[in-house]
Specification:
Chains A, B: Keywords: Aminoacyl-tRNA synthetase, ATP-binding, Cytoplasm, Ligase, Nucleotide-binding, Protein biosynthesis. Chains A, B: It catalyses: tRNA(Pro) + L-proline + ATP = L-prolyl-tRNA(Pro) + AMP + diphosphate. Chains A, B: It is found in: Cytoplasm. 2 copies of one chain form a homodimer. With 480 residues, chain A is of the alpha+beta class. The first copy, chain A, folds into 3 domains: 263 residues, BirA Bifunctional Protein, domain 2; 101 residues, Anticodon-binding domain (Rossmann fold, 3-Layer(aba) Sandwich), CATH 3.40.50; 69 residues, Translation Initiation Factor IF3 (2-Layer Sandwich). Chain A is 38% helix and 26% strand. In chain A, the strands form 6 sheets. Chain A has a 7-stranded mixed β-sheet, with helices on both faces. In chain A, strands 16-15-17-18-19 form a 5-stranded mixed β-sheet, sandwiched between helices. In chain A, helix 1 runs parallel beside helix 11. Chains A and B meet through strand 2, helix 3, strand 3, strand 4 and strand 5 of A and strand 2, helix 3, strand 3, strand 4 and strand 5 of B. Strand 5 of chain A pairs antiparallel with strand 5 of chain B, so a sheet runs across the interface.
Chain lengths: 480, 480
C-alpha cells in the first residue's frame, strides 16, 4: 500500500463510497478530471480524460459496426416542428423534453426548430427518399453526435441536458431480418461490456410501460452499480412498420409488390462512463478496465534526477509503447507520492515505479490499481509480461463485477420478500400480472421493471402484488 | 475509354463542368451520393460516401494532433447569451448569424441560449477555471463537433447553416510559443493538402479586414478551384492576450508573477469536401485522391456468373485487403457498364475489371480514374504494384493541381492589368496601400484579399488603385 502523507491528503478529499455514494460519484468525476460543469446549467464539459474514455468506446464500436456492414452518416441538428409531429407516439414521448430554436440574431423563424433529442424522424424522412427497391435494402446507418433533452435534474454522465451517443438506424425488407438486427446489436453491446469495459450486463426486453416511444419492442443492457442500483446502459428497438407507415418508406420487392419496410434503432451514450465509474471505482478514485484506459501503464521515476533512473524509465517507455501499450511516462517535477495519488485517482491500471534501489537488483515495482497490490518484477520481464498482466486485470475486474451481480440477483415469491430483498440492493426477479403490478411496485418501492429476461419461466402462478394470475417474469431494481 | 451506352446515360445527367460550374458541382454532390438536402432549409445530410471523406480527414488530423500533444474534448452545444457577450469584437462578428434557443416543450427559458457558432468563449471560460500555474500550461485542446451559423445563401459543403469541423483552442505561457503553435497548425493543414488531399494550398496571413473576429492575426490555407475561384480551406488564429484579459485567464509564472496567458485557435471543416470536388472533379464525376478515397480500388467482375471470374475476383479482393488497401468487390447483379459509370461518378481511383478473356492470359484490366486510362496488367503483379500505383496517382493529381495553381497565379503592376488578369481566373498578386484599396477592389471587381503572402516584397512602389504609397503585397482572387 502506498499511503504516504501526500497521498492521504488528496485521497481524503473524496467522500467514502459507503458513506455517501452520490457524493463519492460527483467528487470522483471532478477529481479524476473526467468532466467539469459549464455555464449552461445541466450541460457538462467532457475533459480530455473523460472524453478519451468515450473515444475508446467509439473505436471499439466503430470497428464492430463496420465489421457488420454499418455505415456512418451525419444528419441535421435541427428538426422542423411540423416534421417532428408526424409520428404520434414518438412526439408524445419526447415533446416535453425538447429545446427549440425560435429566433436568430436578426429575426424570428417562421417555424420553430427542435434540437434533435433522437433522430428516428430525420432518418425515416431520408430513408423514404432514397429507398425504392429491394436492391436498396438493407440500409444500415449509424450516427455519432450529441442530443439535447431538457431534463430537470441532472448528474454528470448519467443524465444531462446534452449527451454524446451513437444512434444506429436500419431499414430491412423483412420482419425477420429487422428482428435479427435488433438482437445482433444488443449482442454487440453485451460484448462491449464483457470484452471491453469489464461490465457484465443483464439483457432482456423492456415491458410495454418502459419501452421506447414509437417502438414495438425495446431491448436493453443493464449494469449493476456498486450501490446495488441498476443503470440502463444501452437500448435496441424494433419498430416493425410503424415509422415506415407514418413516413411512407416503401420498396418494390422481388415479387414486384410494393411493401412497407421494417426498421430498428439502437444506441449507447456517454452514460457508459457513469457505469465504468460506479461499477469499478473505489475510495481511492477511478479504477479503469485496461482496454478502455487512456493510459494503461504509468511509469513513475523515483529519484528521477538520477541518470540511471531516467534511462531505465525511458527505455521501458519505448519498449512498452513499441509493444502497442498505451504508456504515460510521468517525469514532471512533482513528488512520487503526489504522482501515485493522482494516477490512483485516475484509475491507471498499472503503475511501474522505477527507482535506484530496485534497479540495483535489475527490478522495478509494479502496482496494480484494481487490487492495490505491489510486487517486484525483473526489469527484463516487464515488457513481455505486460499484455498478459493487462488481460489478467481485465478478467479479474470482470469476475469481481460478475460476483457482485450474482450476489445481488434475487428471486421473490411474496411481495414482502420482494421488498426486503430490494432493500438489500440489486435485482429482484418476480412473476407478476403485468402493468398494474408494475405501477404499484414503482409507487410503493421505487423499483422499476428493468427487463423481461429471455427466460420467461414463471416463479409463481399468482402475482404476489395483485393476486391475479402471473403473466410475466420481470427483473426489478431501483435504478438511476 | 469506357463509354458504352449505359455509361453515357448516367454521365449525361450531370452538367458539363465548363458549361455551368455551379450546376456541375450541385449535380455531382447529389449523383455521387455525397449529400442530400434535408427538411430544415440550409441543413444538409452527410450521406455515407460524403461522411466517409470527412472520417478520412478526421483520422489523418487526429493522428497529427496527437503526435503534437493535443487532446480531444467536448464542450457544450449551447452558450448563455450573457457569456457570449463578454468579448466585444467576437460578439460583433458572430451575433447576426446566431441561432437561439428560447423555449422548451414546456416553458420559456429565463435566458436565451446560443447554439455555438464557434467555441472560443466556452474554451476561454473553462481555461480560466482550470489554469492557475505555469505547470498547467500549455493546454492544447481540440474539439470535433458541428456548429451553426445562420447563413442566408447556402451551398452543399461550402456554406451551410450547420457544418462539421474541428476547432483547436490552445493556451500558452509565452507569446513566442503561442505564435509558433499558430504557424505549426497552419503547416499541418498545408500538409493535409499536399500529403493527403493532393491539394496544394497557398498560405499566408489575412488582412486586418478579413481576419477572424477577436483575433490579433489570422492565417489561412487557400485552395484554387478548377473554375479559377479561391476557397478558404482552413484558418489558424493568434489571439495574444485578448480573450485572456476578457476572461481572466491568468497563471503564476516561474518568476512568481501573475500573468495573462496567450491563446490560439484553428480549424478546418467539411468545406474541404467541397475543395476535393472542385479541385479534382471532372465531367464524369468525382475524382478522389487515393489517400482519402473510401474505396481505393473497385473490382468489377465481367461475366460474373463464371466460376473462374468469381474465384479470381475474390482472391484479388482478399489479397488487396490483406495488403491494407481499401477495396470494394462489386458483385451485385447490375451490368458492368452500370458499375463502371457509378464508380467513375464516385471517383474510385482504380477499377480492376476481371473478365474471362483477360484471365485466359492471366491478366486483368486496370482503369485509373484521374486520367481515365486503361491498361492490361499481369494478375500476379496487381497486388504488389497497387500501393505504388496509388502513390503515383496521388503524385500525378497533386502535380496537376500544382500546375493549375502555377498557371493561374499572376502579378499585376497596374489596376487595368489586375482586372484583366482577374477575369482569366485565379490569383493576382498586387502591392496596395491597404484597406482603402482592398475595399475599392472588392466593390469594383468582386475580388477579395485572400492572403498576405509570407514574402512581402513590394511589386510596385505605388498602389495602382489609390496612387498612394504601397504598403502591402496581397494575393487577390474571387472566392467562394
Amino acid at each position: 500500500m502506498s499511503n504516504n502523507k501526500e497521498n492521504k491528503k488528496l485521497v481524503e478529499s473524496i467522500t467514502s463510497r459507503d458513506v455517501d455514494f452520490a457524493q463519492w460519484y460527483t467528487d470522483l468525476c471532478l477529481k479524476a478530471e473526467l468532466m467539469d460543469y459549464s455555464d449552461a446549467k445541466g450541460f457538462i464539459i467532457y475533459r480530455p480524460y473523460g472524453y478519451a474514455l468515450w473515444e475508446g468506446i467509439q473505436d471499439y464500436l466503430n470497428k464492430k459496426f463496420k465489421e457488420t456492414q454499418h455505415q456512418n452518416v451525419y444528419l441535421p441538428l435541427l428538426i422542423p416542428e411540423s416534421l417532428f409531429q408526424k409520428e404520434k407516439d414518438h412526439i408524445e414521448g419526447f415533446a416535453p423534453e425538447t429545446a427549440m430554436v425560435t429566433t436568430t440574431g436578426l429575426e424570428d423563424l417562421a417555424e420553430r426548430l427542435i434540437i434533435r433529442p433522437t433522430s428516428e424522424i430525420l432518418f425515416a424522412q431520408h430513408y423514404a427518399k432514397i429507398i425504392s427497391s429491394h436492391r436498396d435494402l438493407p440500409k444500415k446507418y449509424n450516427q455519432w453526435c450529441s442530443v439535447v433533452r431538457w431534463e430537470k435534474t441532472t448528474r454528470p454522465f448519467l443524465r444531462g441536458k446534452e449527451f454524446l451517443w451513437q444512434e444506429g438506424h436500419t431499414v430491412h425488407s423483412s420482419e425477420k431480418e429487422a428482428r435479427e438486427e435488433t438482437l445482433n446489436m444488443l449482442e454487440i453491446y453485451e460484448k462491449l461490456g464483457t470484452d471491453f469495459l469489464a461490465i457484465p450486463f443483464v439483457t432482456g426486453r423492456k415491458t410495454e410501460k418502459e419501452k421506447f416511444a414509437g417502438a414495438e419492442e425495446t431491448y436493453s443492457v443493464e449494469a449493476l452499480m456498486h450501490d446495488g442500483k441498476a443503470l440502463q446502459s444501452g437500448t435496441s428497438h424494433y419498430f416493425g412498420n410503424g415509422f415506415a407507415e407514418a413516413f411512407n418508406i416503401k420498396f418494390q420487392d422481388k415479387d414486384n409488390q410494393l411493401k412497407y419496410a421494417f426498421q430498428t434503432s439502437w444506441g449507447v451514450s456517454t452514460r457508459l462512463i457513469g457505469a465504468i465509474i460506479m461499477v469499478h471505482g473505489d475510495d481511492e478514485g477511478l479504477v479503469l478496465p485496461p482496454r478502455v484506459a487512456p493510459n494503461q501503464v504509468v511509469i513513475v521515476p523515483i529519484q528521477g534526477q538520477k541518470v540511471e533512473v531516467q534511462e531505465a524509465s525511458k527505455k521501458l517507455y519505448d519498449e512498452l509503447t513499441k509493444n502497442g501499450i498505451r504508456v504515460l511516462l510521468d517525469d514532471t517535477d512533482r513528488t512520487p507520492g503526489w504522482k501515485f495519488s493522482e494516477h490512483e485517482m485516475k484509475g491507471v491500471p498499472v503503475r511501474i515505479e522505477v527507482g535506484p534501489r530496485d534497479l540495483a537488483n535489475n527490478e522495478v515495482t509494479v502496482f496494480t490499481r484494481y487490487n492495490r497490490e505491489k510486487k517486484q518484477m525483473n526489469l527484463d520481464l516487464v515488457n513481455n509480461s505486460m499484455k498478459d498482466l493487462l488481460d489478467e486485470i481485465h478478467n479479474r475486474m470482470l469476475e469481481k463485477a460478475q460476483d457482485h451481480l450474482k450476489n445481488n440477483r434475487h428471486i421473490a415469491k411474496t411481495y414482502d420478500e420482494f421488498k426486503s430483498l430490494l432493500d438489500k440492493g440489486g435485482y429482484v426477479l418476480m412473476s407478476v400480472a403485468g402493468e398494474e403490478a408494475e405501477i404499484r411496485i414503482k409507487e410503493e418501492t421505487g423499483a422499476t421493471a428493468r427487463v423481461l429476461p429471455f427466460d420467461q419461466t414463471l416463479i409463481t402462478e399468482t402475482c404476489p402484488v395483485t393476486n391475479k394470475k402471473a403473466t410475466q417474469t420481470i427483473l426489478f431494481a431501483r435504478a438511476y
